[in-house]
Design brief:
Blueprint (H helix, E strand, L loop, with lengths): L1 E3 L2 E3 L3 E4 L6 H11 L3 E5 H5 L3 H7 L5 E5 L6 H15 L3 E4 L2 E3 L4 E2 L1 H13 L3 E6 L3 H9 L6 E2 L13 H10 L6 E3 L5 H9 L4 E4 L1 H4 L4 H21 L28
Parallel strand pairs: 3-4, 3-12, 4-5, 6-9, 9-10, 11-12
Antiparallel strand pairs: 1-2, 7-8
The chain binds 1-deoxy-D-xylulose-5-phosphate.
Length: 260
């Protein structure tokens, strides 16, 4: 069970709702993933998405509206206010994009927008880079959760900088952290969970798979396996080989005599 944003959730896989071949496939994929936290774009909803809302409303999920496509503090705050009204939640996945090429979050505007949204009573889930100091500032600004990127949105590259992520995990051990974006394969999600992250959020890897429903199920298993491995505690990595089969008492091995 994961406690996040004041709610208890069973699944550590959070899923997006964009880019699916059809609304029915989206619904089937979300069900197959067993995700309980589902992110939705307010801007998409704003673009005549009444049908879309009716469809996703069939799901019993916690909605995590996002500010995808926002580049300024003003845009992000306005979008968050619309989301609160539309989805009746104070949760907001805050995206403030600073660079169009790799959709990298703008750390300065993200921080400013966070301060404003926290003041207005939002539970901010900030989509951020893996920079430790930025993450510390976001916590100072009132975030209770962090969402560092795995890799740029839609790239499917997996964890670009495991060292930076590991550092974040070690330095901020008690903060719920969700790896968001850039995950391409279930093994990437497993890796994030093995490292001790609390959850992963992804969209493209499922929506753009040849068989999104099957891929959603694969991600569910990958996340579960990674979490279980983390809880089980991995063996330490060694530089020097150590036999896993004891040879004591083996009758024919006589190293001293050089016997082969
Ligand atoms: C849907 C959403 O919120 C995305 O902005 C998110 O960051 C997922 O990224 P991927 O599509 O790379 O999984």
């Amino acid at each position: 069970m994961l406690k996040i944003g004041g709610k208890d959730v069973n699944s550590r896989l959070f899923l997006g709702t964009a880019l699916y071949p059809s609304p029915q496939i989206m619904l089937d994929a979300i069900r197959a993933s067993e995700a309980e936290v589902v992110t939705v774009s307010v801007r998409r909803e704003g673009q005549g998405g009444e049908n879309f809302w009716k469809q996703i409303n069939q799901l019993d999920c916690h909605w995590l509206p996002n500010t995808a496509g926002c580049h300024t503090v003003k845009e992000a705050v306005t979008t968050a206010e619309m989301a609160r009204e539309l989805f009746q939640t104070n949760w907001i996945k805050l995206e403030v994009i600073g660079d169009e090429y790799n959709l990298q979050p703008d750390p300065f505007r993200l921080l400013d927008a966070t301060r404003e949204l926290v003041k207005r009573g939002f539970e901010v889930f900030p989509y951020c880079t893996d920079d430790l100091v930025l993450c510390q500032r976001l916590l100072d600004a009132g975030c209770n959760i962090l969402m560092p990127w795995g890799a740029p949105i839609g790239t499917g590259r997996g964890l670009s900088d495991p060292y930076a992520l590991q550092t974040l995990r070690q330095r901020l051990p008690d903060i719920p952290m969700v790896i968001d974006a850039g995950i391409g394969l279930p093994s990437h999600a497993t890796q994030a969970m093995e490292m001790g992250f609390d959850a992963v959020l992804l969209n493209t890897a499922v929506a753009q798979a040849e068989d999104p429903v099957n891929m959603a199920a694969a991600f569910k298993e990958g996340v579960t396996a990674g979490r279980r491995a983390y809880e089980a505690g991995a063996m330490p990595v060694r530089d020097i080989a150590k036999p896993s089969t004891p040879v004591l008492g083996t009758p024919f091995w006589q190293q001293d005599k050089g016997d082969v």
